[in-house]
Amino acid sequence: MAGERGSGVVSLDADVLRGDYLCQWYDGDDGTVLAERARAGSARTAVRWGQARSSRVQILTGAGELLWAGTAPRPEAFAASWVDDGEVVGRLPVPAAVRPRSRRSLS
Amino acid sequence: MASDSGTLFLDGLDFCGEVVGQLGPEDWGRPSPCEGWTALDVLGHLTTSLDMGLALFAGEQPTWPDVERPADLVEGDPAAVYADVARRCRAAFEGADLDLEMDTPMGKRTVADRLAFPAVDLYVHAWDLGRSAGIEVAIPGDVVAFAHSYIDPIPDEAVRGPKGAFGPEVAVPDDASATDRFVAWTGRDPA
């Protein structure tokens, strides 16, 4: 079922043009349905958003590193895990509800 | 960049406003150069860029609207919606600290640094709106130079592609205008 918390995979991508993270939660049987999307001003905020939705979270940092940030065991494809370095938390709206559906890009 | 991005942003509000004011009711449903978007979608997207400016002026991290389509963000008369958010941006700019540092994925950046994106967005999407309605829009040379100075140092893979803001650069004739070269660089076809 699309949009079921704890399922799917979350992708957190540094957007170097905007200066924030694009947070996308993919769900569905094949993990390709974009269930929800948000923006986060910091990696910590982005990871919190991701972990609230799935145990499988990956983050592409502003330095171009692809790191594992999920609570599930790190897959072999990931060489390292994201470490919270204590950055300042950015503001991000808390989603009112899960709305499973595909979305168009706003960028 | 500090004063440049602020000036370009404020000038961009007027620049884009002039284009918005020329679109008639029949134009907002027309397709735009942005794939899958109508002119009204472009305007809705622009409001998110302006909201980004408003958040930055308040020293807050920009947020993201939860809508199915960007056009859903435009309720009522499109020109009035634009005028309202532009007015709020001008007012907020007056009290903004452009030197305030904020966290970004690339480390600390000032509000002025981060304003570069919504500033450039105003001009590029003004061209999109013009193209939708058959209005010729010439992007000022200082905007083109600023956009290149801001974006050229960023790796291409971070700028273009499915998660980037630009599509692949479009080839243009040798005698293409400066505006055509610029929009082609952003992935738009000026032909």
Describe the protein in words.
In chain A, 8% of the residues lie in helices and 28% in strands. With 107 residues, chain A is mostly beta strands. Chain A has a domain at 9-68. A five-stranded mixed beta sheet of chain A has the order 3-2-1-4-5, with helices on one face. In chain A, a hairpin with a 4-residue loop joins strand 1 (9-15) and strand 2. The longest helix of chain A is centred in the middle third of the chain and has 9 residues, at 43-51. In chain A, 42% of the residues are buried. The model of chain A is unreliable at 88-107 (pLDDT under 50). The model of chain B has no long low-confidence stretch (mean pLDDT 93). In chain B, 53% of the residues lie in helices and 4% in strands. Chain B has a single domain (2-138), classed as Four Helix Bundle (Hemerythrin (Met), subunit A) (Up-down Bundle). Chain B has seven helices and two strands; from the N terminus they run H-H-H-E-E-H-H-H-H. The longest helix of chain B has 23 residues, at 111-133. In chain B, a hairpin with a 2-residue loop joins strand 1 (101-104) and strand 2 (107-110). Chain B has a two-stranded antiparallel ribbon with strand order 1-2. Chain B has 191 residues and is mainly alpha-helical. Chains A and B meet through strand 1, strand 2 and strand 3 of A and helix 2, strand 1 and helix 4 of B.
| Name given to the CATH architecture of chain B | Up-down Bundle
CATH topology-level name of chain B: Four Helix Bundle (Hemerythrin (Met), subunit A)
Mean pLDDT of chain A, as a whole number?
Answer: 77
What is the helix tally of chain B? 7
Major β-sheet annotation of chain B: 2 strands, antiparallel
Low-pLDDT ranges of chain B: none
Strand order of the largest sheet of chain B: 1-2
Ranges of chain A with pLDDT <50 over ≥5 residues? Answer: 88-107
Distance between the termini of chain B: 32 Å
Specify the oligomeric state: heterodimer
Question: Helices and strands of chain B, in N-to-C order?
Answer: HHHEEHHHH
> Secondary-structure element order of chain A, as H and E?
EEEHEE
Per DSSP, what share of the residues of chain B sits in E-state strands of 2 or more residues? under 5%
Would you tell me the structural class of the helices and strands of chain A? mainly beta
Rounded mean pLDDT of chain B is: 93
Give the overall shape of chain B, derived from the CA principal axes. globular
Query: How helical, in percent, are the residues of chain A?
Result: under 10%
Supply the number of helical segments of chain A: 1
Largest interface: A-B, 36 and 33 residues
